[in-house]
Amino acid sequence: MITTIASVVPLQLADRVLISLTSISGLVLVASGLTIIFGLMGVLNLAHGALMMVGAYTAYAVQSAGFSPWLGIVIAPLVVGLIGVAMEVTLIRRLYDRPLDTLLATWGIAIVLQEAVTIAFGTSQKSVAPPIEGSVSLLGVTYPAHWAFIIVVTIVVMAITIGLFAYTDIGIMALAVIQDREMASAVGINTRVSDRTTFGFGSALAGLSGAIMAPLLSVNSTMGIAWLADSFLVVIVGGVGTFTGTIAGGILLGGLDNLFRTVISGYTSIAQAAVLVVALIIIRYRPQGLIPAGERGE
Amino acid sequence: MAGLAGITGIAGCTGGGSSGGSTDTEESSDSGGSDEPLTVGALYALSGSTEVIGRPMMNSTELAVQQINDAGGIDGREIELVKADTASDPQTGIEKSRQLINRDGCSVVFGAYTSAMRNAITEIYVGNEVPLFYPTLYEGGVCREIEGAEGFSGEINVPQESLEWVFFNGAVPKQQIQPYLPWLMEEYDVSSFYLIGSDYVWPHTTNAVVDDFVQENGGEIVAEDYVPLGFTDWGSKLSDIQSSDADAVYFTTVGTSMVEMLNQAGSVGLVDEMVWAGNIMSEQEARGAGDAADGVLTSAPYFTSLESEANDTYISSYEEAYGTDTTPNFVAEAAYWGPLMLRDALVEYAPGATSGSEVKSALENPISLDAPQGTVEMDPGTHHATLQSRVGEFDAESGTFEVLNEFGQIEPSGITVAEGCLDV
After folding, report:
1. Nearest residue of B to residue A226 by CA position?
2. From the CA of A237, how many Å to the nearest CA of chain B?
3. Domain harbouring A238, CATH code
4. What is the domain range of residue A216?
5. Model confidence pLDDT, tens digit, residues B334-349
6. Distance between CA A283 and CA B259 in Å, rounded?
7. Which CATH fold topology does B174-300+392-407 show?
8. Do the chains contact at B326 and A124, CB–CB below 8 Å?
9. What's the pLDDT tens digit per position in B259-288?
10. pTM for the predicted model, two decimal places
């Protein structure tokens, strides 16, 4: 009864490509904060999904207070960035050399954030409106404007982030601190401030991704857990410690997921399992990921 | 009609007067038994993945017990409620069931959500001979004789369970689908359906029933498609649905996955383009999807928007006690009238009951009750309830369902519940 091989006509192909791009963008956008916190700083942040969730709730709170959805997208990264700074100052700072304890501490923070949101907003799922309603015409396809917006935001965010770490003093100093804390300190960089800023920035990206993705998702206190797993997968398969790696990981996983689900459209579970098999094979033969971090500083 | 008298007592009590609750006091002293409080358990998810539905269920059971006690209990016997949290985890559900029965001495327990939870804990109740009142809609399956049941030509393989100690007051597929699908096909002029569901037993069984009724009414199933639980990224799947050219989507996706499906379908304009209908969406999920769920149809025994005295009492006392942070829905409503039915059964047949088997015998009577959804009856032969059946259309602005049609009372037996199968 199910068409196993979807008949792919050109218009449909364009539609599928756009849908895949939105999927990939969502994955990359949500994973981008983790690229910084886990990829660059080496902090196994299990609160990443919860930070994304707080971003989504911030967008909800701003909207339900009667403000524009755009304001939510601006405020979410600020709120979540501040939560990130607070996390760094109180806990993470003491745990840079203790990865296993970080695992427990960040999971604890995730639970605290989930419960805090439940206390503040109740257990019901929330509905968040997109900042742009309506649709646009892309590649001859009528496409929801918000879905196109996700692609644009992801490209812009990744470009800015890559630029920030490659070309600005703050970014380069942050990389120096991550590379060799003592040496950076010896040349006069305030490592405390640098760590705090980097962690806060990564958290802010998680908050931003939550606010942007919220209209497509079910906003509830546990929504971040699935995205936490996906984000780690994207970062690890793509290559820990590089932004291009995260993009590659997102393209590979999101792209394959959509491709497999289109080709064997009646068997979603099998298609999704196949993507995980591919991810496992990649990690087996390229443990450093698709685009491994180079030996920086040499 | 002890049921009707009972609920009038409650309504009267909260409204100021009182009459029904105390009329049978004589009988209680005559029939002997205990005057000690009856200990009753409530086992719902107060944490974990199904907390969102577990809380209104727990609140509703607690509310009913409070109202019963305020109206004089079971002929003067107070009901003592012991609450337990399953944490949405079947293993915890088993432990808490043992605690409720063996430590707290519960004579009957209200609880569980999802078939996985019920399957895990059923044997504890069978082994200890304590009745379990299960308020969730589910696939049915008390007896195996399903093939060739009246009005159903398909074959459904359902697990044979040891269910003599379970009482079901949620809907089985027949009660939601039998009158609903022919109505849907005629009223909306749809004949081809795309069935999309979450990949577990309830959607599969429900779709088998849907399939049968669609074909019987001259319709066609274009695809029967399942996604894993928790499926999030609906883009490609919505393209499949769109290009199938079906007239209607019949969805049996559950929880957050359903909300995300509707959000994304609304986003691409597919909710306006096709008829979306199902029988699992309640106020909670619909509000979670907001504008995207506007106009989506669902069949259920109960909607919060119903206008009746019993429902006004339920909703207003619920909101007074628990505020509006949690939303009652058709599962919570069943968790509410379960204790009321227990009270009526005990008042009529065993006012002094203390043991699980005495409670069970009392419940195995044709008890009728004026619940918020309307008149409901327990069928002793199947331990399932005759329920109301109606179709509602979600209105995003008010956050409630507008009732489009009332199908009246539907019996549980037939299709996935064989008639009289527990009579032996």
Report:
1. B230
2. 20
3. 1.10.3470
4. 10-285
5. 999 999 999 999 999 9
6. 33
7. Rossmann fold (3.40.50)
8. yes
9. 999 999 999 999 999 999 999 999 999 999
10. 0.86
